[in-house]
# Entry
Amino acid sequence: MATVHLIQQYGSRQLRHICIDTAQQFDENIYATRNCYQTYIDTSCYDYTIDVHNWGSKATASLLLQLINHSIDMKQKIKALSLSLAHCSQVDDWNAFKYFTAPCLQYLRFSFTEQTEEIFASVIRNCPTIQDISIFRLLSPPTDIIIDALITLPLLQCFAIENIKNEVFEDEHYSFDYYYDYDFFPISYSDINSVPIQRFFQYHVSLDNQSTLQEVRLRHIQNLDPSAFYTLYKIKSLKSLNFAGPDVLYGIRHYQGGSNAVGWATVITDKQECLLPDQIEDLVLEDSKAISDSDLEFLDIPSITIGELSALKITAIQKMMTNAQKLKKLTVFDYGEFQEDGEILEDTAKRNNISLEIVMRN
# Structure
């Protein structure tokens, strides 16, 4: 891979941050990777990082290890590693990575295929200091192989499964699935098996007050059973939830209810009360036509962020602010739905002593 060889030839041996993104070679596809949640590692939070995106089929574990070993201190001091694999990555390409260890690694963001799941499970076991882990681009649903590795992490604070919206959901303006070259843009899956995910949550429930898990993000995946959410809510250490996409719950398909469809209200509110645990301090809800006025009306969390909830009426947001006792900060990512109603929301927020931020995004 030319970029790796350039770094080896000309890069300083004192490098602390390495970021490679092959998506920049394809202008028509940059949109998809630039508009996802927290695309790049925040280098203000982590020293010594390797951040690789859209890693093509010609890239192998040996190339990645060359990057890690290039810097004098990188292997021993690396704090954050982000790696997005190509869908066509084969197990033979990654066997060398199975024995990777990093004594200070705190953040791991990765994707895996059915063939490479065991390899990345070994990496997780080899890095017990990991605090923040994200399966980014769901190329294969997590099985007990990954879950068994995750429950060995004694310091885990954040767990996420995240897809890029435009890779898994066709909308009225874009259908990026048809544009991807498998060498650089893996097609993400969205279906997920609830059983291993619920087992992971149940493990942290069983830890009681000893669990360290504080944040869970589930973005643009589908078919999680409501019981997985109810188990998640029993984790005593949990403080932050981040949900995005219309199909997270089992049975919601193509923005429409079916014979066994369940609405977001099933896991958020019920009979004029909030179902989320009392200790939750921060909630993000984005990108869904399945969240209705009634789902939002009785939410009461200290900090709430909402965006692209196109089925909502402004009256629902007003009622939420009026009913809430704990809500102190509300952020609305405005895609045009509430642009003309900003003053109305600001007046309601002021009357209820709520800090309101309306963020305009193109």
Summary: The two ends are 35 Å apart (CA to CA). The first helix runs from residue 2 to 10. DSSP finds 13 helices and 14 strands in the chain.
